[in-house]
Amino acid sequence: MTQLREVRFISLALAAAILSLLLGAALLRLVTEDAAAGGLLEQGNLVLATVLLGLAALAFGAGHQFGRSADAPINDPLTSLGTRSRLLADLDEIGRPAVLLLFDLDGFKDYNDSFGHAAGDALLARLGVRLAACVEGRASAYRLDGDEFGVLTPETLDLEALAAEAVDALSEQGKGFTVGCSYGSAELPLEVGEALEALRLAERRLYAVKQSSSLSPSRQSSDVLLQALSERYPDASAQFYSVAEMAGTVAEHPGVSAEQLVDIRLAGALHDVGKIAIPDAILQKPGKLDVSEWEFVRQHPVVGERIIAAAPALSGAARLVRSSHERWDGSGYPDGLAGEDIPLGSRIIAICDAFNAMMASRPYSAGISEEMALEQLRRCAGTQFDPELVRVFFAVHAERRVVEPVRLSA
Question: β-strands 98-106, 140-145: how paired?
C-alpha cells in the first residue's frame, strides 16, 4: 500500500511537469507570433525557460511527495494507535531484545461487504481500543494498513499469553458475523537486525499462517491429499508433516516471500503424493529395481504434479513437487535439471526429504542414525544437493538440536 501511494504521488508530479511543458509551449507559440522580431536568440531563451519550468514542477512534485512521507502522521486517526511510520521509527530506535507481532483480521472483508464501510470503520475503532487496553504498560500497539495491526513488546514478556490476549482483543462475534485474526512474529535482534527486515519476516509468517488456515482453499485441498496419503501409507504420515515443517524452517533463512514459503511447506508435505500411482510390488520390492520398474518410480513426481495441480490453489506447490527429485549435478529426474535451474523450494525439499528418508526404516532396509544421515548430506553437498542450502540445513539443525553445526569442506 505504501509503495502504491508513492507511485500515485510521483505520477501526479509527472503529470504536473507535462502540463507545465504544454503550457510553456503554448506560451512560446503566442510570444513568438506576437514578437517575431525578437529573433532566434529570444526564442531559444523562451524554450530554455519552458524546460526549466517543467523540471521545476517535477522537482516540486517529487519533493512534495517525499516531504509528505517524512511528515507522515504517527497516529492513526481512526484508532489513535501508532501508524506504520511510527512502528518503523520505534523499531529503528529500539535498543533491547524485542518481538514484533503482526495481526491480520480474518472475516473482516465479509463484515464490510455485509454491513458497509461505516460499520467496518466502527469495528476497527473498537478493536483498536481493545488492543491498546490489552497491551497497556507492557507493549506498544499500532494499526498498519486496513485491517492489519501490530504490537512491539520486550522479549522478556510471556509472548504466548500476550499474543493470545491480543488475538482475543482483535476478535468480535455477533449475529451473522465472526471476526478473528491470525498473527506472525519476528524477534530482534535474534532473527533480524533491521526494522524493514523484521516487518517483512513477520509479514511472511503471518501470510503463511493465513494460507494454512483450515478455511483457506489451499489448506482444504492439501488436507484431502494428505488424508489420502495417510490412508495409503499410515506408517509414513508423520514424515510428511516433518518434511513440511523442516523445509519451511530452512526456507526462512534465504528470505523467500510469504507466498513461496506457503508453497514450500505444502510441497514438502505433498512431495510424494505421486507414489499413489506406483504399485506396492515396486515400492516394497526388497531387491534392485529393473529398468521398467525404475520408469514407474521416475515418473512419480510428474504424477504428483498432475494430482496437486488439479487444485488451482496448489499450483505453486505442484511445480515444486515435480522438481523435488532433481539433483544439483543434473543426474536427477524427471527433467534432468541442474544447479539453480532447479527451483529453490525443490532444492530445500530434496535435502529435508533425504534426511528423513535415510533415518526411516523400510521393509527392505533399516534406517540409519541421525549422525550418519548428517554425514551423508555432507558428502553429497555439491553433487546431489545444493551445497549452500546444506550449510543452511546444518545451521537450522544445530539451532533445533542445540548442537554444533557440522562443518562442510570449502
Answer: unpaired
Contacts of 140 (CB under 8 A, 6+ apart): 82, 90, 151, 152, 153
Number of H helices, E strands in the chain: 17, 5
Q: Tell me the pTM.
A: 0.53
Q: How far apart are CA 245 and CA 291, in angstroms?
A: 34
pLDDT one-digit tens code per residue, 282-298: 888 888 888 989 988 89
Question: So what's the pLDDT on residue 211?
Answer: 67
287 closest CA partner among 368, 355, 363: 363
Residue 382 burial class via C-beta count within 10 angstroms: exposed 0-12, middle 13-18, buried 19 and up: middle
Burial of residue 141 (CB within 10 Å: 0-12, 13-18, 19+) is buried
User: Looking at this protein, which amino acid is placed at residue 72?
Assistant: A
| C-alpha span between 195 and 205 (Å, rounded) | 16
Reduced to 3 states, what is the DSSP secondary structure of residue 173?
A: strand
